[in-house]
Write a structure and sequence with these properties.
The structure is a homodimer. Chain A is α+β, with helices and mostly antiparallel strands. Chain A is built from ten helices and 19 strands. The first copy, chain A, has an eight-stranded mixed sheet with strand order 12-13-15-14-16-17-18-19, with helices on both faces. The longest helix of chain A has 18 residues. Chain A is globular. Chain A starts with 6 loop residues before the first helix and ends in a 6-residue tail after the last helix.
Chain lengths: ~400, ~400
């Protein structure tokens, strides 16, 4: 069953590639490249007959070599397991590799490659268990005046059971969008499998878009700035790449005013804070802390996957940081059922330090470390797989 | 309300582009290019500092000009309204333009541009009416042994009304996939608007993937062959681009064995042929005719949008063509409630000729011609908008 999900996309016949090198599960139908060796080296091939210099950018820049047929090739060193965005540079032009499906990250549609985990790890693969569904939902935001799109996972028994469900609001990271958690993250398969094994309670998952700009606000926080290097007239060259202008306040306002009411009106949802969780990865984790810590009357479960408030805004002080949300440990521990801090082991010590500081201040929290993974979707799949079973108990 | 749907994607601030040139609704957030002038000329800009030759391929190849800043630009002549795939050529390498969202066509993720219709035409835009939802549905196919994905539109009142609905099976074209009809085609908004105006009956729409290969069959019918120009070992250079090997028989078998039973088990569906329609565009129209004409006990409504059996397999003969499906006009007209043939006016006369031949043979049919459009998604949006109101009456 392993990886059978992608057979539809990756097609059947594959030729022209070296022995033992398997096409990435994210390739377009039939494309033999990129392919991954058992030792996790990756081979790429690109048609660029008249180019002078072609590179693959994946964990650094790798020069490709031109063959007599105008095809450029390279095999790069073993890569970390998991999902990675990557790009090509063709004579200085940054583009996606036409041989893969594209995935929205860094504000545009990048190429993606999946370096497989060992074959016995299949918690995010489709299995022959009851499947929930992911639905696209459009709604008109009063806060922004614009139509917005979210995706909603409903569990396998949603239509049959007619009962009400708790809700997890699950956020993507910087430069990504509302498609990330079910396309790159496989949140739907992770929950299908957890629910089938009775490890997680059936729940609804709402995957929305962090990018909220009220009229007059700068909507450009997800910009792929290299596409338009000229500064905006009148902006004095203000950089558009990064988190400039991002406070999270507009997202919180939109979430409370538009998103949660729409979800609770549209789906069979259990009411109240003990049936409402929020989590997110990277910038989505920061947003989660910003939103929930100032609205603890509305959320009882909090998850930061490679992202939290830890390390931002100077040294952590339980009395004053986060507007004093952590100042009364006894009260906090009563109200917040799970405070989850996840991180990939190769991402650095900041999240562990934040967890330790919270613990020292008497704040109960769960620290989860994903072995051998980086700031990418495999870390976040593992975080969700560990976090979801803790919810709504 | 016009185009407000894409504000989420196209972002807010846009600078650096010429006066009066509006960013395409399909651009990534914040990208000022490509942009469309009121007279439908289109301006492109691409960062390629070290390239020798850069072209835009949209209705032919257009050379771009390098500026001192390494940005290449071109303004191309007025384009036909509608949705168009396009690509860049950078020193001979065919890639998508990083400035737009990508869309699966010709077997890979192309760039897309939308040349707007006049502002008062909004049948495929989101309006402030009740919205249905599009759900991703995975199912395991007995015929192929693989997991497959379809998307299912359920009408706005599906959850509230608890009634049963008729079903339209709606197919994409060559090189596209199950994402096309709701991403490029806006089938969901078209139906939301028709249902709100009581022009169409509420219905379920199933959008599946034409690519069905049984074990041992060639899955490569959607291949972007230019990506791997070397012939397959042992195939003698058999071309993989085009309809080679496509008979449609495996799709029909999968549809009857796997898809329809899964849909009728999973959703509240009205039973029987008079509650079942099938339509498709281009190759999906061919598939529709192949499947329905040999299974008239299962389908009462048939639609071909820029695609049918007309013109294939030699001269049309009502007695013998399509295994004699049209040989008894009286019986055919009793069983088939709507036989719909749509085409863009600039696509040529073949569909009109087929409609006339059917009419001459006594076969009732609806001929729909979309004014001023080509073999692209605007033709097919208009076809659906005309076809859906005729269903299930």
């Amino acid at each position: 069953m392993k990886h059978i999900v992608f057979a539809l996309l990756a097609g059947g016949l594959c030729w022209g590639q070296p022995d033992g090198c398997k096409p990435s599960s994210l390739n377009i139908p039939g494309s033999p490249y990129p392919c991954v060796y058992p030792d996790r080296r990756v081979a790429f091939r690109v048609a660029a007959p008249d180019a002078q210099k072609v590179q693959v950018h994946l964990g650094g820049a790798h020069d490709m070599t031109r063959g007599a047929d105008g095809m450029w090739t390279v095999t790069i060193p073993p890569q970390v397991i998991g999902f990675h965005y990557y790009t090509l540079s063709i004579d200085g032009s940054t583009v996606s590799d036409p041989a893969t499906r594209t995935f929205f990250g860094s504000g545009w549609d990048n190429s993606g490659i999946e370096i497989p985990e060992p074959a016995d790890i299949d918690y995010y693969q489709p299995k022959d268990v009851p499947h929930g569904q992911v639905s696209q939902r459009w709604y008109l935001s009063k806060v922004t005046g614009k139509w917005r799109r979210c995706y909603v996972y409903t569990p396998p028994d949603y239509d049959a059971k007619k009962t009400r469900y708790p809700v997890l609001y699950l956020m993507h990271g910087w430069g990504e969008n509302e498609q990330g958690w079910h396309t790159q993250g496989h949140a739907d398969f992770i929950l299908d499998n957890l629910i089938a094994e009775k490890k997680a309670k059936p729940m609804i998952i709402v995957m929305d878009n962090l990018n909220v700009a009220k009229p007059g606000e700068d909507a450009g926080i997800f910009s792929a700035r290299w596409l338009w290097p000229a500064p905006a007239p009148g902006t004095g060259g203000r950089p558009r790449f990064g988190l400039n202008g991002f406070t999270g306040a507009s997202f919180t306002e939109m979430m409370l005013t538009d998103l949660i009411p729409m979800i609770e009106k549209t789906y069979r949802v259990l009411p109240g804070r003990e049936n409402r969780a929020m989590a997110g990865l990277s910038m989505g984790g920061m947003q989660t802390f910003l939103t929930t810590l100032s609205n603890l009357d509305k959320f009882a479960y909090i998850g930061g996957f490679s992202g939290s408030t830890g390390g931002f805004g100077g040294k952590f002080d339980a009395k004053t940081s986060n507007n004093g949300a952590f100042s009364d440990a006894i009260s906090f521990n009563k109200r917040v059922k799970v405070l989850f801090l996840g991180i990939g082991s190769v991402e650095g010590p900041r999240t562990k330090a934040f967890s330790d500081a919270l613990t020292a201040a008497g704040i109960k929290n769960v620290y989860f470390e994903s072995p051998g993974t980086a700031h990418e979707w495999l870390t976040w799949r593992r975080c969700l797989n560990d976090f979801a079973p803790r919810l709504f108990r």
